[in-house]
């Protein structure tokens, strides 16, 4: 199921502005990789360039190579929708489709990609909702609007929607920043379970969260505003948080940045 | 403690003197009484002058009383509140007046007979005739115009919002804005010159064909910019996060638009379409120019003159017959009820789709 991601000299631009510069890192399959760093350092930009979501914004482009299974997803003959089906994404704010029920939200990715068979959709819906730890809460009201759930439930609904298309990799862009501590805990538990099947990359501002959920941690930073973000250090989470090899990482983690 | 001593030194007063709750009503009653005495005793005017004088007296009286008892800020609040209410009443008065006049005058003749017969062979001395032919004309013309403009307008708005980049999109938006301001008579003249006099002779042995379809084309020219602009606004209100959420599931762009973006914006788009339909139903000038009008029933929108409700109202209002004004009012009421019921039906339909899916 899970795939290895190799980034080779990836740079991303917003128009003429270079947001990240020459990022190279290898993300191992079936692991959780956390990306930390100050605001504006390019963590989210890098995350969005992994499944070609960066180019959705007008004027944005990516240089360098991003290899999944040895294929560069930025090659000309790559089908973008196939890339995004392989690499799912969960966003900072829960974004369930407001016109759809809980059920329709979960199976949206399958149905809109041509799966019609009711039995297949039903099975996929239950599996994804169980996977996202939401099944017991919503199994009796699958036909109610997805937007009627609480914030934490909506975010788990979005995770269920993302894993319903059975991706190889799940990208999470600050998935807990809009949630309360209890919902955050539920999502962190979920990440620990998802790790058994998927490769997970998570962007977070919460360093305790990075330390709790991730196997490897990448620290991004910028020299000053207007400069592109760089990958400063990338290592095992335990090492980053106890004995980082770069001074800037240590300063950031211990709160002495700037 | 410094905090305690501070609060002891300068105690904050949160209480203030207030007028009793019945004060505005009392001032209002007094104002009406004084105004009535001042207007009716010298015989200066009637109820309109009385209410204007009473309103002014109320404003001055309440303001003065409030200034004396409550102070300046509260007085300004009371006066401003009264002015806001007055503006609301003034804005509502013409609407209620129109609705009331329409219903009282229109309902006199509005019955099954009126809705079921045309004006064919009805002379100035006949207390007969109806609007059947005009209702058919309005429904066919507005219906054809809607069929033409809704796909064009919605797809045009989708282009502007979802695909358009740079100069072309900006240019199209600019021309849509220009089109919004086209007077209906100009739209009618355009279709007269282009369709009736140039294109239609090709299908009619060289003779120009005035028809309901030509009227529908002219109405389309008027409806298109309204639909494009309102749809555009509604599409822009759909959060980008929804589109990104769909892209991230590997859903292609066109399916994201048709299955996620358009359904989310549907209630607003329907409202915009119904506004355009309502405007088209009320247009008279283009129908006069290119459909000419017809006292008889003509089901065929592609051949021969056709009437419409607004044209019928215009004709009857100008006809020298003591029975014509009644017919005009009844047709006007029919038109309003028709547009209203179409709007309500469309809104219900849009809402049901949203919940049931």
Biggest interface in this structure? A-B, 31 and 24 residues
Question: Mean pLDDT of chain A, nearest integer?
Answer: 88
Q: According to CATH, what is the class of the largest domain in chain B?
A: Mainly Alpha
Distance between the termini of chain A: 41 Å
Q: What's the helix count of chain A? A: 10
SSE order of chain A in H/E notation? Answer: EEEHEEHEHHHHEHEHEEHH
CATH topology of the largest domain in chain B: MetI-like fold
Radius of gyration of chain B, whole Å: 29 Å
Largest beta-sheet characterization of chain B: none
Distance between the termini of chain B: 65 Å
User: Helix/strand/pairing class of chain B, anyone?
Assistant: mainly alpha
Number of β-strand runs of chain B: 0
What's the overall average pLDDT of chain B, rounded?
Answer: 88
Question: Can you say what the CATH homologous superfamily of chain A is?
Answer: P-loop containing nucleotide triphosphate hydrolases
Largest β sheet strand count, sense and barrel closure of chain A = 6 strands, mixed
Number of helix segments of chain B?
14
The CATH topology of chain A, please?
Answer: Rossmann fold
What is the β-strand count of chain A? 10
The best one-word shape of chain B is flat
Keywords (chain B): Cell membrane, Membrane, Phosphate transport, Transmembrane, Transmembrane helix, Transport
Protein name (chain B): Phosphate transport system permease protein PstA
Membrane topology (chain B): Multi-pass membrane protein
Domain ABC transmembrane type-1 (chain B): 135-346
Task: Outline the structure in words.
- The complex is a heterodimer of chains A (258) and B (357).
- With 258 residues, chain A is of the alpha/beta class.
- Chain A has one domain: Rossmann fold (3-Layer(aba) Sandwich).
- Helix content of chain A is 36%, strand content 25%.
- In chain A, the strands form 2 sheets. Chain A has a 6-stranded mixed sheet with strand order 6-7-8-3-9-10, sandwiched between helices. In chain A, strands 2-1-4-5 form a 4-stranded antiparallel sheet, covered by helices on one side.
- In chain A, helix 7 links the parallel strand 7 and strand 8.
- Chain A is globular and about 55 Å long.
- Chain B is mainly alpha-helical.
- Chain B folds into 2 domains: 88 residues, no CATH class; 242 residues, Orthogonal Bundle (MetI-like fold), CATH 1.10.3720.
- Helix content of chain B is 76%, strand content 0%.
- Chain B is built from 14 helices and no strands.
- In chain B, helix 8 crosses helix 9 and helix 11 packs antiparallel against helix 14.
- The longest helix of chain B is centred in the N-terminal third of the chain and has 35 residues.
- Chain B is flat.
- The model of chain B has no long low-confidence stretch (mean pLDDT 88).
């Amino acid at each position: 199921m899970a795939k290895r991601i190799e980034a080779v000299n990836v740079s991303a631009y917003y128009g003429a502005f270079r947001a990240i510069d020459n990022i190279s890192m290898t993300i191992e399959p079936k692991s959780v990789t956390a990306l930390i760093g100050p605001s504006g350092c390019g963590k989210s930009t890098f995350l969005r360039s992994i499944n070609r979501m960066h180019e959705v914004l007008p004027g944005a482009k990516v240089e360098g190579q991003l290899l999944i299974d040895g294929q560069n997803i930025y090659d000309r003959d790559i089908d973008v929708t196939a890339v995004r089906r392989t690499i799912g994404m969960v966003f900072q704010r829960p974004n369930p489709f407001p016109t759809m029920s809980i059920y329709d939200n979960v199976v949206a990715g399958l149905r809109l990609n041509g799966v019609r068979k009711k039995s297949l959709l039903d099975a996929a819906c239950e599996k994804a909702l169980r996977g996202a730890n939401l099944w017991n809460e919503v199994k009796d009201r699958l036909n109610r609007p997805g937007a009627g759930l609480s914030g934490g439930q909506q975010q788990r609904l979005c995770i269920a929607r993302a894993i319903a298309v059975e991706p190889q990799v799940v990208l999470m862009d600050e998935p807990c920043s809009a949630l309360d501590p209890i919902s955050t805990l539920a999502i962190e538990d979920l990440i620990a379970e998802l790790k058994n099947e998927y490769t997970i990359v998570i962007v977070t501002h919460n360093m305790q969260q990075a330390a709790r959920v991730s196997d490897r941690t990448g620290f991004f930073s910028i020299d000053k505003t207007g400069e592109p973000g760089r990958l400063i250090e990338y290592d095992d989470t335990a090492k980053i948080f106890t004995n980082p090899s770069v001074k800037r990482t240590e300063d950031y983690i211990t709160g002495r940045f700037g | 403690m410094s905090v305690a001593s501070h609060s002891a030194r300068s105690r904050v007063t949160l209480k203030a003197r207030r007028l009793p709750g019945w004060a505005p009503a009392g001032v209002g009653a007094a104002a009406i009484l004084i105004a009535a005495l001042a207007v009716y005793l010298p015989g200066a005017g009637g109820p309109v002058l009385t209410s204007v004088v009473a309103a002014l007296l109320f404003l001055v009286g309440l303001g003065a009383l409030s200034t004396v008892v409550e102070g300046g800020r509260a007085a300004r609040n009371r006066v401003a509140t009264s002015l806001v209410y007055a503006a609301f009443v003034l804005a509502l008065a013409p609407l209620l007046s129109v609705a009331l006049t329409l219903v009282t005058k229109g309902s006199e003749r509005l019955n099954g007979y009126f809705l079921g017969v045309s004006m064919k062979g009805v002379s100035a001395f006949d207390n007969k005739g109806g609007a059947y032919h005009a209702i058919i004309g309005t429904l066919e013309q507005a219906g054809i115009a809607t069929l033409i403009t809704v796909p064009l307008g919605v797809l045009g708005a989708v282009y502007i919002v979802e695909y358009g980049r740079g100069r072309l999109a900006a240019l199209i938006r600019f021309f849509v804005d220009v089109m919004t301001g086209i007077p209906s008579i100009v739209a009618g003249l355009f279709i007269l010159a282009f369709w009736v006099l140039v294109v239609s002779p090709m299908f009619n042995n060289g003779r120009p064909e005035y028809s309901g379809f030509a009227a529908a084309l002219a109405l389309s020219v008027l409806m298109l910019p309204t639909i494009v602009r309102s749809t555009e606004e509604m599409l822009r209100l759909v959060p980008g996060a929804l589109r990104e959420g769909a892209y991230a599931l590997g859903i292609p762009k066109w399916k994201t638009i048709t299955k996620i973006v358009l359904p989310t914006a549907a209630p607003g788009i329907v409202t915009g379409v119904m506004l355009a339909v309502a405007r088209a139903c009320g247009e008279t000038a283009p129908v006069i120019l290119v459909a000419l009008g017809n006292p008889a029933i003509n089901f065929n929108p592609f051949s021969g003159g056709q009437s419409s409700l607004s044209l019928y109202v215009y004709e009857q209002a100008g006809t020298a017959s003591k029975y014509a004004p009644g017919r005009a009012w009844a047709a006007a009421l029919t038109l309003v009820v028709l547009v209203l019921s179409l709007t309500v039906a469309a809104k219900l339909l849009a809402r049901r789709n949203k919940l049931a899916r």
